[in-house]
Write a structure and sequence with these properties.
Distance between the termini: 7 Å
Strand content: 15-25%
Shape: globular
Number of strands: 7
Helix content: 40-55%
Order of helices and strands: EHEHEHEHEHEHHEH
Radius of gyration: 15 Å
Length: 178
């Protein structure tokens, strides 16, 4: 599958481990250098801003989709290629999925988990079939990956998590897979 654009889901905070920022920046630079458009939530803070700035540093394209609510908090990144302001989070997520060929998950919080599980659910329901990658920086997602296997062993999943998600440990591994 040709990947021309990738949805990046990650934290609007930096996290406590400096590796998260290093990986976010490295991923952004690799995306920009590979001419893969970054589609993301449009934020200027945390790992979201770090990835976007990495793409821009390489002359790449960054499209942000942000709900009106967050612009009132001045969380939008005004230096990206295109910023689309939408009505709410549901419209935002739908547009993120529609505009991307694949999805990559970096460390993050509740919002990142929401986006991960929604895209996995949509894949399971054949709403779309986009490759999903998890960048497991410093083992951040080890417990979650273990829990996905428990969910499957206990009979709650219709698909094998190993077929639903490709786990990578460094940003450059993504470019071996796409």
């Amino acid at each position: 599958m040709q990947v021309n654009s990738i949805a990046v889901f990650c934290g609007s905070n930096d996290g406590n481990n400096p590796l998260y920022q290093r990986h976010a920046h490295q991923l952004g630079r690799l995306l920009g250098a590979s001419n893969i458009t970054m589609i993301y939530g449009g934020g200027n803070k945390g790992l979201m801003g770090v990835v976007a700035n990495g793409v821009l540093a390489e002359g790449g394209t960054v499209i942000g989709i942000i709900p009106q609510l967050l612009t009132s908090w001045e969380r939008q990144h005004n230096g990206i290629t295109e910023l689309i302001v939408v009505e709410d989070m549901h419209v935002r997520k739908r547009m993120l999925y529609e505009k991307s060929d694949a999805v990559i998950i970096l460390p993050g919080g509740f919002g990142t988990m929401d986006e991960l599980f929604e895209v996995l659910t949509w894949n399971q329901l054949s709403i779309h079939n986009k490759p999903v990658f998890i960048l497991n920086s410093g083992g951040f997602y080890d417990a979650l990956l273990q829990h996905l296997h428990i969910m499957q062993q206990e009979g709650f999943l219709y698909i094998n998590p190993e077929n639903a998600v490709t786990v990578i440990n460094t940003p450059d591994e993504l470019f071996v897979r796409v």
